[in-house]
Amino acid sequence: MAKVRIPSTGYYFDWQTTTLYMTYRFSVKANDMGSKEYNIYDQFSARFPSMRVVVEAPKKRKSPYLTYDKMGAYIACQDNAAHLMAQLHKVIEEARGQNNPRKFVDDWFRKTFPNFGKYPDKAAS
User: How far apart are the C-alpha atoms of 43 and 45, rounded to whole Å?
Assistant: First the structure.
């Protein structure tokens, strides 16, 4: 089945297959009796009792911060990996008292390793 592009209204009705495609957010609002979304869904279901309903999965949010596993894997490649891993664990413990611990650790990591994610310098090889 081809992926259907749902417009900004939150739903799309395919007249040929009598299938109602809706976003997750629209489906949540359609459960609230009296809402605009509920009325739309109710009208379609009254007219097409055997219609199929397809709810699009909610989009996964991607964190802007590095995972601790990626930080650990990078640190393991360094010359003084044992010392740096101890520092990482200490920073993770300190971060527990912060408002945003992931950001705290990410900021420390990027400050400590400014070349992370960049190609190694050819002259150093």
Answer: 6
Alpha helices in 57-98 (DSSP H): 68-76, 81-95
Cβ(85)–Cβ(73) under 8 Å?
Answer: no
| Residues 5-41: tens digit of each pLDDT | 888 899 999 999 999 999 999 999 999 999 999 999 9
pTM of the model: 0.54
Q: How many Cα atoms occupy the beta-carbon half-sphere of 90 within 13 Å?
A: 6
Q: With beta carbons less than 8 A apart as the criterion, state whether 20 and 53 touch.
A: yes
Helix axes 81-95, 101-112, angle to 10 degrees: 150
Tell me the C-alpha distance between 77 and 41, whole Å: 56
Q: Considering only CA atoms, which of 66, 54, 70 is closest in space to residue 18?
A: 54
